[in-house]
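Hi W., the arginine complex you wanted:
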Amino acid sequence: MTDQTRKNLWGGRFAGETDPQFWRFNQSFSFDRRLFEPDVRASLAYCDGLVAAGVLTPAEGQQIKSALTGILDRGRTDESYFDDPSSEDIHSFVEARLVEMIGDTGRKLHTGRSRNDQVATDLRLWLRDEIDRLAISLCETQTALLDFAEENRDVVIPGYTHLQRAQPVLLAHWCLAYFEMLTRDRERLAEVRKRVNVLPLGAAALAGTSYRIDREAVARALGFDEISRNSLDAVSDRDFCIEFTSAASLVMMHLSRLGEDTILYSTAEFGFFELSDAVATGSSLMPQKKNPDSMELVRGKAGRVFGHLAALLIMMKGLPLAYNKDMQEDKEAIFDTVDTLNASLAVTATVLRNIRINRERTLEAASHGYLNATELADYLVRKGMAFREAHETVGRIVVHAIERGLELNKVALGDLKSFSSLIDQDVFDSLSLEQTLATKSQIGGTSPERVAEELNQARTRS
Ligand code: ARG
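Structure:
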């Protein structure tokens, strides 16, 4: 690999050759070529900075910029351009192409710049764009939730605590719960974006640049809202990667829980949902099977993103200031986090558009299992009983009903009265499914009226 030693950006000090295995271990071009566009965009802005600082003549600046623009065009249109096994990373790749095109003038672009501030700049530019795309994907998944809710406005399911039937809720209310989670996710990503959108370029290797680069102007040209205030921090800060992966982990955790509910509700035991063939798979052995692989994979991939978060935290925790090569490990974690998030959001939206509801099963489940016991206690409270006593009384009525295999609204009035003289004929209205839902009409509750209002509200927020 004699020619590789020559192509290294740091060849001068080295007489010996790089061990080929180590060379492959050290290179990042196989994955950081994804930073191609931001790398060239940052170089275009930096070139202007060098001209303004008087480091490059305007003519040199022009020559470099038109060559960079050519490189950008070629890279955008020709995949084979990147078939270059001799590049160590994306930065050396672009510089090599530049020097190939314009010779020695190309060698001036790296004046006052280090790959340390360069890579941090590239990654921030890349991530900023991806966050903007993710914000759109999140909205699309939210829209799928709202559409699903609206198409099934009248569907009631049991709400659960401890996975035991608790109180009935509208399916639309369940959808809106996930909508809220994804809204917080969007807010978190917007918050992370602020700290991503800070320009490190000009920090050079670690101490700052000795050239009169107007960093504010470079920041403006690249759309950065701020510039880093400390060069040591600028090149060694990967908080933005960790914060992003943390926000991404929460998104995945939410999708995973949605997946878990969907998978459960699609079992014969629950029987609320049936996934269409478009998003289910069969078994190679058991002909009857229809498996919810789509949401199982989303649930599984959550673990993968959490793993990236742990990897980044652990990778950073012992690093002395400033840049260390350990930090090259950030890229694959971030790239894979973004890819996993995009794919999971899209598949989740598709699944939501491919669920059929078994309305008989949902209704039957929501009206059996004493989901209206709390209503009966509330009824007694309205009649003047203290809640603790009402709770106790209803507990005894439930035992009575279980023994007879009856739902509460089927227990004879006379029997109910034997538990409390406050109970009257009007109790049966209170125990109906409609009433149980309708009373939950305060903000945040599951009454049809309130949920309809929230659905409308949500449309304006997604
Ligand atoms: N490929 C490197 C990375 O991703 C670029 C920075 C290299 N800097 C250095 N001093 N070797 O971190």
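The longest helix spans residues 115-151.

W.
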